[in-house]
Amino acid sequence: MMIYVWAYIVGGLICVIGQLMFDVVKLTPGHTMSTLVVAGAIVDGLGWYEPLVEFAGAGATVPITSFGNALVHGALTELFETGWIGVISGIFKLTSAGISAAIIFSFLAALFVRPKG
Amino acid sequence: MLTGQQTWKFQREPRIISTATIVGPDEAKGPLGNSFDKCYDALEIEEKTWEKAERRLLNEATQLALSKKNLTPNDLQVYVGGDLLNQIVTNNFVARELKIPYLGVFGACSTSMESLAIVAQLVSSGAVKKGMAGASSHNCTVEKQFRYPTEYGAQKPPTAQYTVTGAGAAVVSLEGEGPAIEAATIGRVIDLGITDPFNMGGAMAPAAVDTIIAHLNDMNRSPKDYDLIVTGDLASVGHPIAIDLLKKEQVPIQSTHFDDCGLMIYNTKEQLVQAGGSGAGCSAVVTYGHLVDELNKGHLRRILVVATGALLSPITYQQGDSIPCIAHAVALKGKGVE
């Protein structure tokens, strides 16, 4: 039960950090997003993201920081299994589901609506 | 005739003999909804792209301004207009339909009064007999041009403004009935170093104040000589700043009614428009709709419209440059006012 509460709190705090980068530091949406991705990557490189996922579940896996975590995680896993070439091949192994989902759902959406912003 | 350093005082006063205003759904729901000639109830304006939608607004506004007085484009010798899109395409394409001599102008949101001032000068000097001024903006074209596509759903802080969907056109002639154009004050570019494109009102306020003071000095007038001094679109952030700056310069602005087109066009408390309206269409539809009506009815006798513009491009603010701003003022007076 507590994991739901922590998911809510941790996920919310990551979003608060993003909002502060937006409103206080005045970063653009693009800068905010990529900074959070890089932050997630660094945190995983230090080995702290996995414990955070165990502690807060979706609170840590849903925000964009999780993407940075997945990139580094995939690279490191493959590094240990297949050697240095794994750093390159592993990056998209863990993230491929997310990237493919984005492409497929965008395609499905574009079949029905025509974006014209 | 040049009066002072920045003001053209017209010896032969041209008149605004016809106007037309066409707006979108949010403007129709605002407090001035009844003063517009035509309101569309969807932002698409029955077109396939936002750019075509804006073009249609301006096209219909120019045609309606002419047809109200049974005029055709051939009765005009010049059309002066501008908008906020790259290469001012809306006006270029509308001028293609008009097939008359055309001067495209860009003064960001000050374009409305910039074009009116130029047409007034051309008519007064005899360069043309009749001319038309026009300006337009569309919420979805302009937000995309300067900030983000509306579908992207980017957050906007409360200091940001909401681009007006609307187009206004005015036919100017020495002969005919309508409010007289007494004088025009051409603004200087003022930049106090604000870099936030989500606070245009704050950036533009000093330019508005500079032009108001220049106008009053050149004309040897005080604010109380006007029933209304109205800024283009400073909205709820910039307008109070302008009041403070005017007080600091010891201009007795409290002796007249001092308002803002960006605040007048929406009910800013109930409509989701952040600080208020903006866009070249904002001051155009408020002036050519509501204010010209009030002058014609005699509710207002003499007014000063100070349209403000932020002269930035998306590239300049992304590179960290500050926002240069300008304001152009046009003094209008009702029938029988000396």
Short structural summary:
The complex is a heterodimer of chains A (117) and B (338). Chain A is 83% helix and 0% strand. With 117 residues, chain A is mainly alpha-helical.
Question: Can you walk through the features of this model?
Answer:
- The complex is a heterodimer of chains A (117) and B (338).
- Chain A has 117 residues and is an all-alpha fold.
- In chain A, 83% of the residues lie in helices and 0% in strands.
- Chain A contains 6 helices and no strands.
- Chain A is globular.
- With 338 residues, chain B is α/β, with parallel strands linked by helices.
- Chain B contains 10 helices and 15 strands.
- In chain B, strands 1-2-10-15-14-11-12 form a 7-stranded mixed beta sheet, with helices on both faces. Chain B has a 6-stranded mixed beta sheet with strand order 4-3-9-7-5-6, with helices on both faces.
- In chain B, α2 (50-67) crosses α3 (89-98) and α6 packs across α7 (235-248).
- The interface between A and B is small, with 8 and 15 residues.
Strand content of chain A: under 5%
Q: What series of H and E elements makes up the topology of chain B?
A: EEEHEHEHEHEHEEEHEHEHEHEHE
Rounded to the nearest angstrom, the distance between the terminal CA atoms of chain B is 18 Å
Helix content bin of chain B = 25-40%
Unreliable residue stretches of chain B: none
Rg from alpha-carbon coordinates of chain B: 18 Å
Mean pLDDT of chain B: 96
Helix content of chain A: over 70%
Give the biggest sheet of chain A.
none
Largest sheet of chain B: 7 strands, mixed
State the secondary-structure class of chain A. mainly alpha
pLDDT < 50 stretches of chain A: none
- What is the tally of helical segments of chain B? 10
Number of helices of chain A: 6
Strand content of chain B: 15-25%
